[in-house]
């Protein structure tokens, strides 16, 4: 991602990097060095309950994963907050992001393609809006919890009525 930002020098963008910065200090030091002089902010971790507030500040979420994500919760959080997504074309990311429909997919590890995708979004703000509009509806955590409670209630009611032979 930082290589892509470097390729986009002079473009109106700011990269905010989130994640556990203390876990791999040498790697993070290398990232900070590569980002020196570019619009890159290292934010660290945030509390999960603050996710909507953090995502609410973004225009686009970029997930340039190098490994296979099985269930990319971050993408669903972005969609719940109305964002377009740019992601690597691997694993669960490629299974949920439909290129050109609800986001853009780029080849894993290809910083040039990533920069081109970001440049397309900078150059065509209507594309950002169109991709965001193509996202699926994602219920809130509260709505999911209510649905689970409803299902448990229905199962308990059926069990009480002998629907399961008990």
Written account of the structure:
There is one protein chain. The chain is of the alpha/beta class and 166 residues long. The protein folds into two domains: 2-135, Glycogen Phosphorylase B (Rossmann fold), CATH 3.40.50; 137-166. The chain has eight helices and five strands. The strands form two sheets. It has a three-stranded parallel β-sheet with strand order 3-4-5, with helices on both faces. The protein has helices at residues 2-7, 25-35, 51-55, 73-80, 91-96, 111-123, 125-133, 141-160; strands spanning 15-18, 40-44, 60-63, 84-88, 103-106.
Task: Summarize the helices and strands and which ones pair or pack.
Elements: H1 2-7, E1 15-18, H2 25-35, E2 40-44, H3 51-55, E3 60-63, H4 73-80, E4 84-88, H5 91-96, E5 103-106, H6 111-123, H7 125-133, H8 141-160
Helix pairs in contact: 6-7
CATH superfamily of the largest domain: Glycogen Phosphorylase B
> On the 0-100 scale, what is the average pLDDT?
92
Q: Per DSSP, what share of the residues sits in E-state strands of 2 or more residues?
A: 5-15%
Largest sheet: 3 strands, parallel
Number of helices: 8
Category from helices, strands and their pairing: alpha/beta
Look at the structure and give the CATH class of the largest domain: Alpha Beta
Output the radius of gyration.
20 Å
- What is the annotated CATH architecture of the largest domain? 3-Layer(aba) Sandwich
Order of neighbouring strands in the sheet with most strands: 3-4-5
């Amino acid at each position: 991602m930082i290589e892509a930002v470097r390729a986009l020098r002079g473009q109106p963008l700011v990269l905010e990097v989130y994640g556990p910065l203390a876990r791999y200090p040498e790697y993070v030091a290398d990232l900070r060095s590569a980002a020196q002089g570019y619009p890159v902010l290292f934010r660290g971790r945030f509390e999960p309950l603050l996710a909507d507030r953090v995502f609410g500040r973004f225009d686009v979420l970029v997930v340039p994963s190098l490994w296979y994500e099985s269930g990319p919760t971050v993408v669903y959080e972005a969609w719940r907050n109305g964002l377009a997504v740019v992601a690597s074309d691997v694993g669960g990311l490629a299974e949920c992001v439909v290129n050109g429909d609800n986001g853009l997919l780029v080849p894993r590890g290809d910083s040039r393609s990533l920069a081109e995708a970001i440049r397309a979004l900078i150059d065509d703000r209507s594309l950002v809006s169109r991709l965001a509009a193509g996202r699926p509806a994602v219920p809130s955590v509260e709505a999911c919890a209510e649905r689970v409670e409803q299902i448990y209630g229905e199962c308990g009611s059926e069990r009480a009525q002998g629907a399961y032979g008990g």
